[in-house]
């Protein structure tokens, strides 16, 4: 089952839609934007650790997201040398649009399945959510 879930996650992940006005976002930027939205106020080091990226790669991706108006940097109140990364409203809208496009592609694929498969997947949704929570807790 783990291999099947990995393959499914990869197929879904590859379907990064091009967004009007912003253009396509590479995988790293999409992952980074989601991480910033899920945990606003993280440092570059924290974001790098959470995503398993090298800090220079994270910094480069953040420059792209910043130039596109999707995130902003703000100085840490306790240590002005440290930057905290926050999503902008545009970043939140872009993230929601990407999530909706991914969901739509999954819904389209589900519509092609026999009713028995759709029902089995619907019934497994709670267990899959619990698995996702357990994996997040282990991070």
From TrEMBL:
<dbReference type="InterPro" id="IPR036390">
    <property type="entry name" value="WH_DNA-bd_sf"/>
</dbReference>
<dbReference type="GO" id="GO:0003700">
    <property type="term" value="F:DNA-binding transcription factor activity"/>
</dbReference>
<dbReference type="Pfam" id="PF12802">
    <property type="entry name" value="MarR_2"/>
</dbReference>
<dbReference type="InterPro" id="IPR000835">
    <property type="entry name" value="HTH_MarR-typ"/>
</dbReference>
<protein>
    <submittedName>
        <fullName>MarR family transcriptional regulator</fullName>
    </submittedName>
</protein>
<feature type="domain" description="HTH marR-type">
    <location>
        <begin position="1"/>
        <end position="130"/>
    </location>
</feature>
<dbReference type="InterPro" id="IPR036388">
    <property type="entry name" value="WH-like_DNA-bd_sf"/>
</dbReference>
<dbReference type="InterPro" id="IPR052526">
    <property type="entry name" value="HTH-type_Bedaq_tolerance"/>
</dbReference>
